[in-house]
Design brief:
The chain is an all-alpha fold. It has five helices and no strands. The structure holds zinc ion.
Length: 125
């Protein structure tokens, strides 16, 4: 299978999951008691997060297809080095090499910690 075929297959599989997610979310919440509905609401919130992840993956695959068309597929978007073949096998839409991915995740964690450290508005009042 070519990289293009693999990426297109992953894209198709994601589309199916997104559509299945929409159908599930549209289900009315009339039935069940309060506890049941709370569980359902929890499930819905979870599915929003999962939906975000699916959409993010979708965008990553779109960008990988663009890179494939441009002939830059397999090159790290941050440092320009070749992404390891094993990494591309595991994550065909990977845009960053292992080193840059680790650095990006470290930065994202630092930002999250900083946000958590910010005092809340209510506490200031
Ligand atoms: Zn890199």
């Amino acid at each position: 299978m070519t990289t293009l075929e693999i990426l297109r297959l992953r894209q198709a599989a994601l589309r199916v999951r997104l559509i299945a997610d929409e159908v599930g979310a549209a289900e009315p919440m009339r039935h069940g008691d309060a506890a049941d509905q709370a569980v359902r609401r929890g499930g819905l919130e979870q599915s929003f997060t999962e939906r975000e992840l699916l959409l993010e993956q979708m965008r990553a695959i779109d960008r990988a297809l663009d890179r494939l068309a441009e002939g830059t597929y397999g090159m790290c978007e941050a440092c320009g080095e070749a992404i390891a073949a094993l990494r591309l096998q595991a994550i065909p839409e990977a845009a960053l090499c292992r080193g840059c991915q680790a650095e990006a995740e470290r930065r994202a964690r630092v930002v999250r910690v900083r946000i958590a450290d910010e005092p809340e508005d209510e506490e200031e009042a």
